[in-house]
Amino acid sequence: MIYEVRTYVVKPRSMPEVEKRFGEKYEQRKKYSELAAFWKTEIGPLNQFMHVWGYKDMSERATIRAAAVKDGAWPPPIAEFLVSQKSEIMNQTPFSPELKPSNDGPFFEWREYTHNAGQLPIMMKNWEVALSTRTQFGPITALWYSELGGLNKWIHVWPYKTLDQRNEVRNKAHATGAWPPSARAKTDGRPIETLAAQENKIVVPSSFSPIK
Questions:
Q1: How many angstroms separate the Cα of 54 from the Cα of each of 84, 130, 185?
Q2: Who contacts 35 (Cβ-Cβ below 8 Å, separation ≥6)?
Q3: Type and span of the H or E element at 23
Q4: Is 156 within 8 Å of 142 (Cβ atoms)?
Q5: What is the mean predicted confidence (pLDDT) over 52-62?
């Protein structure tokens, strides 16, 4: 399973109209394949939204997108509002759940780490060992690494009912001494991955997002 993450930035005060037009057009597009998620930023870079699509592979992606465009089912009529567009292909880690309809939100923390070249195997091992500690306190929505687009990216997405719950869960996980994964790796005597950058943002779903 791969996920295409399309990140769009729109003009200030245009998001309600953009979301409306996107949702209306999606009624046609979903006949070809359904959204995995649609999130818009609440905290972090404003006027930004992400639509995430799951595919078996790149061949299926190309076939579905070509058919939807040919039949006039896509894209939505939002070009007049767009400031920028970015598309990235993400691989699902072996220990990540697939994106399926859920109601674990409505707040999701999208954390994006850029690790140095050659560090992915270390990152993968450290997270594999430590993840069960973190999920004692709440589920993970997605855990991916980049294949196309921005390279050396590690994405983890966490759902919360409230922002206060986010703080509570993170404090409990850190109190174990086994989270974050670098803390567990240090205790176990394993190498710790080196990171070049870290970013996070709080996003919320649209009314038509399967993940809410």
A1: 22, 26, 32
A2: 26, 51, 52, 53, 208, 209, 210
A3: helix 15-29
A4: yes
A5: 98
Question: 7 - beta bridge partners?
Answer: 50, 86
Per the CB < 8 A criterion, the answer to whether 154 and 180 are in contact is no
For the stretch 78-89, pLDDT in tens is 999 999 999 999
Taking the whole predicted model, whether its pTM rises above 0.70 is answered as yes
Phi and psi, residue 153, nearest 5° = -100, 145
Supply 8's token pair. Answer: 């769009």
Residue 101 near residue 36, CB atoms below 8 Å: no
DSSP-assigned letters across all residues of 153-198: EEEEEEEESSHHHHHHHHHHHHHTS--SHHHHHHHHT-----EEEE
- Alpha carbon 18 to its chain's center: 20
Q: Read off the tokens for 140.
A: 């993970």
Tens of pLDDT, residue by residue over 96-123, are: 999 999 999 999 999 999 999 999 999 9
Distance CA 49, CA 28 (A): 20
Following DSSP, what letter does each residue of 79-98 receive, concatenated? GGGEEEEEEEEEEEPTTSPP
Token code pair at residue 205:
């779903």
Rg (CA), the chain: 18
